[in-house]
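Before a colleague's protein record goes any further, I have to sign it off. What it holds is a sequence and that sequence's fold in token form. Would you go through it and say whether the fold makes sense for this chain? The record follows directly below this note.
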Amino acid sequence: HAALASRATQEMGEHNEAMQPSATPPRLRRRRTVTDHRVLLYTTCYNVIDGVTLTIRKIEQELLAAGHSVLILTTKSGDLRQTHIDGTHPNRQVLFIDNSIPIPFLEGYHIGYSLSKDVRQQLDQFEPTIMHVTVP
């Protein structure tokens, strides 16, 4: 419902702008459009269920519901069976960093230290338009 309200508000704003006189000729004005974003969400420990990952998962669900594509970039921390506890979605991918080490003072947590060639290629293919980075 929020997306529909947002779209209606935007369309009303465009309608009101069209009714206002403007110094810029119509052919030179840029029309605002709604863009489907490709959002890269990086979190160190996606499969360790804590406040950070619950928030990331909520953001992920909202983005998917709004029609955007999401790629989760994370380490193989925690229980990998937790990867799809919210279900699967055709616009959702999870990519694991294959070069990570355990964080000694946080049991179950890993931190990535570099991206392999394969991971970099998959990131390039996704072509993110927005990136959001979190750390524990």
Notes: Helices lie at 2-19, 51-65, 117-126.
